[in-house]
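User: Modeling request: complex.
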Amino acid sequence: DAMVIQNPRYQVTQFGKPVTLSCSQTLNHNVMYWYQQKSSQAPKLLFHYYDKDFNNEADTPDNFQSRRPNTSFCFLDIRSPGLGDAAMYLCATSRDGRGYNEQFFGPGTRLTVL
Amino acid sequence: EDQVTQSPEALRLQEGESSSLNCSYTVSGLRGLFWYRQDPGKGPEFLFTLYSAGEEKEKERLKATLTKKESFLHITAPKPEDSATYLCAVGAQGGSEKLVFGKGTKLTVNP
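Assistant: Request completed. Predicted assembly structure:
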């Protein structure tokens, strides 16, 4: 089945220690998104790629970076995690965005910062 | 600014007790309205897409409807396994590739 895969499912890191989260998709979708979701809150969009074009949200901290080396893979890098960055990180894909198409989400990576 | 408001925030039902969840939206031009189900500790699972007022979609005990200002997710004779948080999101004309999410309704169905 076509799907969105995130690794790892759980990540524990230390305060200030860089961490990379991975997302891959077999849907061959053009758009890939990274969201941060904290308990009982809506997913918060951090940034997205339309093909190779990177789109950063205005309020996404510089501490968060992303790479998309090819259509299938996208990475979220947190350069110096703080306690406030502990959250669920969700990757999603969409066929071609523009608000007409649904997004398909991966299972998420739960990040713990010690 | 595009906004999505879901109500109630939380809803408790007895098994078999039908009810509806509401999603009100204010957007510059609706392109699509999306319903998701999210279980604790998991990513949102896509349920429905609605595009125009009057449209309805059904899946098992769930039916989603759309008007020009709001959408309803009707749950008929719910079972405990329907317990989850239900998220509503809209794609808007000026929103590029982004969706605007509501905060969700947490549904608990007691046996």
